[in-house]
Design a protein that fits this description.
The complex is a heterotrimer of chains A (332), B (342) and C (328). Helices cover 73% and strands 0% of the residues of chain A. In chain A, helix 6 crosses helix 8, helix 7 packs parallel to helix 11 and helix 12 packs antiparallel against helix 13. With 342 residues, chain B is an all-alpha fold. Chain B has a single domain, classed as MetI-like (MetI-like fold). In chain C, the strands form two sheets. In chain C, strands 7-8-9-3-10-11-13-12 form an eight-stranded mixed beta sheet, sandwiched between helices. In chain C, strands 1, 2, 4, 5 and 6 form a five-stranded antiparallel beta sheet that branches. Helices cover 33% and strands 23% of the residues of chain C. The relative contact order of chain C is 0.14. The chains are: A mainly alpha (332), B mainly alpha (342), C alpha/beta (328). The interface between A and B is large, with 50 and 47 residues.
């Protein structure tokens, strides 16, 4: 039963990927009969014939000179070989190379942020649930309404203004040499940490409070369950009740929201990266947008979607390990 | 024919009156709650400043020709100073910015709630193929990164708030639909729904007359919270310059402040002003949503107040209460009464 | 032999709320002899479950406020015990069976582990030793293939099996007193009978005192020795089972018995009790039952009748007790 459940979920994830992949292929083709027109829009000073020639070149270069079906087959074939397309950037680098270059830098921000948010959030949330109704709890509740109303990018601007420009504690803009000079030496790691401080702080303020409030609600919901009373009636100590019965069950909703955070690890820091000029996936994508680099944009999108699908799948499988009811009952 | 038309007119009129009455009762409920009152007051201020922006704003916020007025600090003339780059009055921009935020937030929130509720009810109540189709769509929507797709679509079809609203609705209904669906699955097995089914009521009748009222509180509450979420997202997109390039919005003001050197020259009010706008609008809608959750779910309120009640307990009164329960007290009262009789 | 296992004197529980005070239990006394099964009967909302949790000292303060004069378990005064000390006793010398086994068992833990915990907590033993005892406990309550069933999760068992698991948990350490709070209400009638039989057998075989909390008089008829009838936080009648069923003294008891159909007297109509239990925050003046009582007089609406001793086993709280046969 367990095995068939896993296979089912994998197949379903693959099915979702097929749909996303197809959408991804057709989105840049919406509204134009010839994708070449989108890839190379007509310029003002061009004659009809010149433009025809340019379009022909574009078609050949990007494989638009065959039927749409054949294009789709080629696209899928490319994906199977790990080819996400070719960028417009000078030197026409492969999209997958650009992603591989930028991905670690985004992950530095988002993974650190997630770990900090989760860790501190869990502690704060458990304390608030423990001190339910007292000042610790009400403070968290008020902070959570305030922090959702303050978007992370606004916090980022305030921090880069106050800590960056006024106090000059941390750099308000990322050192442009950070990436090129990085060589795994302790010095360069310190540079990265120094530059990443503000982006991570501004992202994790909301994250900590969000996970805190989520944990608090989950723990309180479990505390009200009958089986906690049973556990106490069995004479278990307070710690046994908390760690063996309460937290284990309270983990379930937290795992769900953790899965959502993980699926947003790559695409979730676009604005923050933009503010601090951080050299990650977000800025890659925004630059691609500014230069109308469609292959790059669509390649990054597909990569992000695929990452989210895998993240969801892993979450679901982890969830089923934690909650034995899942494999038998309805999904979700 | 005329009479029939009149009749229809009257029934429609009655319906409209009923709706207004419902809204009135609802607002009264919010007003009675101290936290809800704060939300209502802020929302009213925002709506007034959006509608009467030209009357309230002391300057024309679109006026970029005031070269002499560049980069002024806050003063009585310019309450929040002027921009460094173009000399626009920041306070007037703040007032005008309400329009975009409220319009995008409300239009998206309501459309999305409508669509999400329909999808959720159909998926939950009808089940079968419609349910599968809707839930598969939800699953696909969940994995597509929203912000990058918005960027792609605005790139392809031009930057406008209409586009942004369209994308928000396209992606936002999924969350609403999931919430509604799970409640509908519970309601579906309620006895009154079963009774209506046995009585031969049509599916549509049951969905509109029985299911919809059952989930309506959830829809209203979620709409308020979604509006708040949409406002944050709108500010983010405007910050990235994906909104209408000619409109004034708080997100765009922040972007201009950043690129215009507010950070560099220490003009903090240029950053704080739009931030406060975003904060107030999102905060007020969230407050209303959360208060509604409390009003509709009174158990939550009780548990949160219990510590306050315990702090304020009067021990002497409690002793009296406890003493009144004693068997001796009951007997005592009796003897004195009998004593009186004798 | 007729020694007291549980001696409860003047238990009072209130819940302060925003609008007033909810008085759930208003000064009740309970005596349970060794090896005796005492039933506490009443409608839902009369404070029976609160009483049971108060005896286990499982009520949280806040929201509850508790006062009690004596709470003696086998001559051990529990009144002032700290939670830590109670933890030692719970599950070992007094334990509890809850109403709904579906929610009372932890859904993400195998039932075997949930029972192991009790042994590991109260005895010094290895896990395998605990598991051996667990399997034996499950076998005792009639769970077939106990060894493999111990590895299943609660949702994989039927309702009757889950309830048996709860019973096995309660009897795990052979406590002196077991409180069963509506142990069969959530079950189908046929399964109810099976589970009651198990419970009854276990109680008699191991000579455990049992406090049975229920609203179901057929359960009382099957199991109880002594019956306390509770109404709106107060004991209104105490009697042996036989006396209660043959000669109820309190009009409420009469009403309760009257709502149970009996085949023997066909001409008899149901005696209905109109309305329902008063809201615990707005109890009527005088006898709490008087608005629903068909024998009520003005006296009843003015003051609360005391709990009077009729003979050594019987007590009743009524100005106009029924079926006394000229005793008073």
């Amino acid at each position: 039963m367990q095995k068939s459940f896993i296979i089912k979920r994998i197949l379903y994830a693959f099915f979702i990927f097929l749909i996303v992949m197809t959408l991804n292929f057709f989105i840049p083709r919406i509204g134009v009969s010839d994708p070449a027109e989108r890839y190379y829009p007509p310029q003002g000073n061009m004659t009809e014939i010149e433009y025809e020639i340019i379009k022909q070149v574009t078609r050949e270069q990007y494989g638009f000179d065959v039927s749409t079906v054949q294009q789709f087959i080629n696209y899928v074939d490319g994906l199977l070989h790990g080819d996400l397309g070719t960028s417009f950037q000078p030197g026409n680098p492969k999209v997958s190379h650009l992603i591989a270059e930028r991905l670690p830098w985004t992950l530095v921000l988002s993974v650190t942020n997630l770990i900090i948010s989760l860790f501190i959030g869990l502690i704060i949330g458990t304390i608030a649930a423990w001190k339910r109704g007292r000042w610790q709890d009400t403070t968290l509740l008020n902070l959570s309404t305030i922090s959702t109303a303050l978007p992370a990018f606004f916090i980022a601007l305030i921090l880069s203004f106050y800590l960056g420009f006024e106090k000059e504690l941390f750099p308000a803009y990322t050192n442009p040499n950070m990436v090129s000079q990085f060589d795994w030496s302790w010095e360069s790691i310190k540079v990265v940490m120094y530059n990443a401080a503000l982006p991570i702080i501004s992202m994790s303020i909301g994250g900590i409070i969000g996970y805190g409030q989520g944990t608090r609600n989950a723990v309180i919901a479990v505390t009200n369950e009958d089986f906690i009373l049973t556990a106490r009636a069995k004479g278990l100590s307070r710690n046994q009740v908390i760690f063996k019965h309460t937290l284990r069950n309270a983990m379930l909703p937290i795992v769900t929201s953790l899965g959502m955070s993980i699926s947003g690890l790559i695409g979730g820091a676009v604005i923050i990266e933009q503010i601090f000029n951080w050299n990650g996936m977000g800025t890659l994508f925004l630059n691609a947008n500014n230069t109308n680099d469609y292959p790059l944009m669509m390649g990054v999108m597909l990569f992000m979607s695929a990452f989210a699908i895998v993240a969801n799948l892993v979450t679901e499988l982890c969830y089923s390990l934690l909650d034995p009811r899942v494999t038998v009952g309805e999904r979700r | 024919m005329k009479i029939k038309m009149k009749k229809i007119g009257i029934t429609i009129g009655k319906k409209i009156i009923a709706i207004f009455k419902g809204v009135g009762r609802f607002i009264a409920k919010l007003w009675r709650h101290p936290k809800g009152r704060i939300g209502l007051i802020i929302v009213t201020i925002l709506i007034v400043s959006a509608v009467f922006a030209p009357l309230i704003a002391p300057f024309d916020p679109y006026d970029v020709t005031q070269r002499a007025q560049k980069g002024l600090s806050p003063s009585w003339n310019h309450l929040l100073g002027t921009t460094i780059t173009t000399g626009q009055d920041i306070f007037s921009m703040l007032i005008y910015g309400t329009r975009v935020s409220l319009a995008v937030g409300l239009i998206t929130g309501i459309t999305l709630a409508f669509l999400g509720a329909i999808m959720g009810i159909i998926a939950g109540y009808v089940g079968g193929i419609p349910d599968t189709l809707i839930m598969r769509t939800v699953d696909v929507m969940l994995v597509i990164p929203t912000l990058p797709l918005t960027i792609v679509l605005t790139n392809l079809f031009g930057k406008s708030y209409l586009m942004i609203i369209f994308i928000f609705v396209l992606f936002g209904w999924t969350g609403m639909a999931r919430v509604i669906r799970s409640l509908v699955l519970v309601l579906k097995n309620a006895n009154y729904v079963k009774a209506a089914e046995l009585a031969g009521a049509s599916r549509w009748h049951i969905m509109i007359k029985h299911i919809l009222p059952g989930v309506s509180h959830l829809i209203i509450m979620n709409t308020a919270l979604t509006c708040a979420g949409i406002m944050v997202a709108e500010a983010g997109l405007s910050f990235l310059g994906l909104g209408d390039p000619t409109a004034i919005s708080w997100g765009k003001m922040l972007a201009e402040a950043q690129s215009g050197g507010a950070l560099l020259f220490g003009h903090w009010w240029w950053i704080i002003a739009p931030g406060i706008g975003i904060f107030l609008s999102v905060f007020s809608f969230m407050r209303i949503g959360l208060v509604m959750e409390e009003v509709l779910n009174p158990r939550m309120k009780q548990s949160s107040n219990i510590y306050k009640i315990f702090k304020n307990l009067n021990n002497q009164y409690l002793d009296e209460v406890f003493a009144g329960m004693d068997e001796k007290a009951i007997l005592g009262i009796q003897t004195t009464k009998e004593g009186e009789r004798v | 032999m007729n020694e007291l296992m549980l001696k409860l004197r003047n238990l009072k529980v209130i819940f302060p709320a925003g609008e007033g005070i909810i008085s759930a239990v208003e000064g009740i006394d309970l005596d349970i002899l060794k090896g005796e099964c005492v039933a506490l009967v009443g409608e839902s909302g009369c404070g029976k479950s609160v009483t049971s949790l108060a005896i286990m000292k499982l009520l949280n303060t806040p929201p509850a406020l508790i006062r009690v004069d004596e709470l003696k378990l086998d001559d051990e005064e529990l009144k002032d015990y700290s939670d830590g000390k109670m933890q030692e006793l719970r599950g070992k010398t007094l334990s509890m069976i809850f109403q709904d086994a579906m929610t009372a068992l932890n859904p993400v833990m195998t039932i075997g582990k949930q029972i192991d915990e009790i042994y590991l907590r109260h005895n010094k033993m290895s896990r395998s030793e605990a598991r051996r005892l667990t399997v034996r406990a499950l076998e005792l309550v009639g769970v077939p293939e106990a060894k493999s069933r111990a590895n299943s999760f609660p949702h994989q068992l039927s309702g009757g099996m889950r309830q048996r698991v709860l019973i096995a948990m309660a009897f795990a350490c052979m406590p002196k007193l077991i409180i069963a709070d509506e142990p069969t209400t959530a079950l189908d009638v046929t399964i109810q009978a099976q589970v009651l039989n198990v419970l009854s057998d276990m109680q008699k075989k191991h000579k455990v005192s049992l406090l049975l909390i229920t609203h179901d008089l057929s359960v009382v008829a099957n199991m109880a020795d002594t019956v306390y009838v509770m109404y709106s936080g107060k004991i209104v009648e105490k009697a042996s089972k036989r006396d209660l069923f043959t000669r109820p003294h309190h009009p409420y008891t009469e009403g309760l018995l009257g709502s149970v159909p009996r085949l023997s007297d066909e001409h008899h109509h149901f005696i209905q009790i109109p309305d329902s239990v008063p809201h615990p925050m707005f109890k009527p003046k005088g006898c709490y039952f008087h608005p629903r009582c068909r024998y009520a007089t003005i006296e009843c609406s003015e003051k609360m009748p005391p709990l009077e001793k009729i003979d050594h086993q019987r007590e009743v709280r009524c100005f106009h007790p029924l079926n006394l046969g000229g005793k008073k």
